[in-house]
Specification:
By secondary structure, the chain is an alpha/beta fold. It has two domains: about 5-255, Aspartate Aminotransferase, domain 2; about 260-390, Aspartate Aminotransferase, domain 1. The protein has helices at about 5-15, 40-45, 60-75, 85-95, 110-125, 135-140, 165-175, 185-190, 225, 230-240, 245-255, 260-275, 295-300, 315-325, 355-365, 380-390, and strands spanning about 80, 100-105, 125-130, 145-155, 180, 200-205, 220, 280-285, 310-315, 330-335, 345, 370-375. Strands 1-7-6-5-4-2-3 form a seven-stranded mixed sheet, sandwiched between helices. A five-stranded mixed sheet has the order 8-9-12-11-10. Helix 3 (about 60-75) packs parallel to helix 11 (about 245-255) and helix 4 crosses helix 10. The longest helix is centred in the last third of the chain and has 20 residues, at about 260-275. It starts with 6 loop residues before the first helix and ends with a helix.
Length: about 400
């Protein structure tokens, strides 16, 4: 699609390749394999000398359409779709790194990402040093001769810490290191990490890209020589943590409304955050759109708006936090986020329960911390729902 189109147009039209039936909506190709015209064509497809679909583990027209659309939105040369956000991180690391390599990562990461780096990758002799998400100097100091990758989320989960992508990319590139940014919380509707100097963008498409909590999906985006020739696609083709055609189709339909949804999520979240700051039993609110946020100015520079995630601490620790959760009648008690429906969770006993207490303390995840993914309901209804427990 021509580059002059705006993002909301790209989100509707990129990736459409109509079949002989000339359908208006994107076609859904539910097939495990594809038929060749001859043995010679089959050989050419498998060798890569002829482009075309082979087997839906790694080539499917619907998945390709999703990849093209998301790549256009992120400003990436290519996108490699995966079965989930975690499989996207795994494919990135296993495709680009080898035994003996080293990662520097933010200590403010999703709990499963921490466990992947600490427990799974360590088995393959890939070590990780965790540093502050916001202190650029700590990343510089953590570099070792075998460091190959910087990995971060911004905003972080759940405290919405903002990392300076441009500054960290400068540090990484000076040392010949790749910078990967998990853009799940913002999506390309609010933030473009590649434009700020990142080499790789990671997505859990399960969240805001899909937008209604229906299916799982993930993606790795960046330059062609890094992802296709560099090994990420090769890992995916062989190991198989790939996105299904049906899930790709559902996520594509979600992407059509991404811009308007992210604007609404952000507007509602800002209202909720301001309201929470006024509540006597709330000791602190974490939201990049608030002037009280420690990286407020950076967030304004790096993001179009604050996004839909608000974290807040309540007086009374875990007991008080659970009381807020259990008093809700409208908000869904679930650890997922990015849904049109608001969700509420207690990170210390759910999303970050499998990491150590020491790691939770270092990441600032207290027993009184709650995370609300603000949905598209009326703000007054959400405030009333939270007020019962507060």
């Amino acid at each position: 699609m021509s580059e002059h189109f705006q993002p909301e147009t790209i989100a509707l039209h990129t990736g459409i390749h109509r079949s002989q039936f000339n359908e208006h909506s994107e076609a859904l190709y539910l097939t495990s394999s594809f038929v060749f015209d001859s043995a010679a064509q089959a050989a050419a497809r498998f060798s890569g000398s002829e482009p075309g679909n082979i087997y839906s583990r790694f080539t499917n027209p619907t998945v390709t359409a999703f990849e093209e659309r998301l790549a256009a939105l992120e400003g990436a040369e290519v996108c490699v779709a995966t079965s989930s956000g975690m499989s996207a991180i795994l494919a990135c690391v296993m495709g680009l790194l080898s035994a003996g390599d080293h990662i520097v990562a933010s200590r403010s990461l999703f709990g499963s990402t921490v466990n992947l780096f600490n427990n799974i990758l360590k088995k393959f002799n890939i070590d990780t040093t965790f540093v502050s998400a916001t202190d650029v100097a700590s990343w510089q100091m953590a570099i070792q001769p075998n460091t190959k990758l910087f990995f971060l989320e911004t905003p972080s989960n759940p405290l919405t810490e903002i990392s300076d992508i441009a500054a960290l990319s400068a540090v990484a590139h000076q040392a010949g290191i790749w910078l990967a940014v998990d853009n799940c919380f913002c999506t390309p509707a609010l933030q473009k990490p590649l434009e700020l100097g990142a080499d790789i963008v990671i997505h859990s498409a399960t969240k805001y890209l899909e937008g209604q909590g229906r299916v799982l999906g993930g993606a790795v985006l960046g330059k062609r020589d890094l992802l296709m020739d560099g090994g990420v696609f090769g890992f995916l083709r062989t190991a198989g943590p790939t996105l299904s055609a049906f899930n790709a189709w559902v996520i594509m339909k979600g992407i059509e409304t991404l811009k308007v949804r992210m604007e609404a999520h952000s507007a509602h979240a800002l209202e909720i955050a301001r309201w929470l700051e006024s509540q006597p039993n709330v000791t602190r609110v974490f939201y990049p759109g608030l002037s009280s946020h420690s990286q407020y100015e950076l967030a304004k520079k790096q993001q179009k708006s604050g996004g839909g995630i608000v974290a807040f601490e309540v007086k009374g620790g875990k007991e008080a936090a659970w009381r807020v959760i259990d008093s809700t009648k409208l908000i869904s008690i679930t650890a997922n986020l990015g849904d049109a429906k608001s969700t509420l969770t207690h990170p210390a006993t759910t999303t970050h329960a499998r990491i150590t207490q020491e790691a939770r303390d270092a990441a600032g995840i207290s027993d009184g911390l709650l995370r609300i993914a603000v949905g598209l309901e009326a703000v007054q209804d959400l405030q009333n729902d939270l007020a019962r427990g507060l």
